[in-house]
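By way of example, what follows is a protein record of this kind.
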Amino acid sequence: LAGGIILGVALWLRHDSQTTNILYLQLGDKQAPNTFYVGIYILIAVGAVMMFVGFLGCYGAIQESQCLLGTFFTCLVILFACEVAAGIWGFVNKDQIAKDVKQFYDQAFQQALMAESETNNGKAVVKTFHETLDCCGPDNAIGAVTPLWREDLCPNKGSILKNVMESSSCHKKIDELFSGKLYLIGIAAIVVAVIMIFEMILSMVLCCGIRNSSVY
């Protein structure tokens, strides 16, 4: 059940409309940074393997098989080690993920403001960011007051000044999007880790109980 829940959460994060709209973008020959998906794929793998390993442990307990319970324990130790490694990786890269996406947005934004922007897809990339995150422009003063602003780059209708004043900066929205998603991943990882610890303890207790049973 825990494996199924983790798998469900991971698939929801993987197919969330906001992240997929942004991370599938392509600026010329450059693909949007999708490092975020590495953590999601790890969660999907852990959830799927947990479902299989859970069945293995349940069957081993019913059959009172020391071999199956020992295999169950070994698989849990390996999964736990992978999850700890993934957690460390996520903690180290949590700020870098949002930073890479913001740099990608800034590059698209600069291309969208250039005179020759009609020859590339910078304008389309920027509009996707603005519409998906309901934001308008970077969070620097140059981006906000530049005379090269185009009204059709922002989702709000009306004057350029109104767009700038009423819309949040895209840098802030990008930080909120990925920090929220990574927060969910962190909670899921902690829950799985706690469950695994209890599973390892109980499987060894059961295995030792079977070994010491008078039946054997």
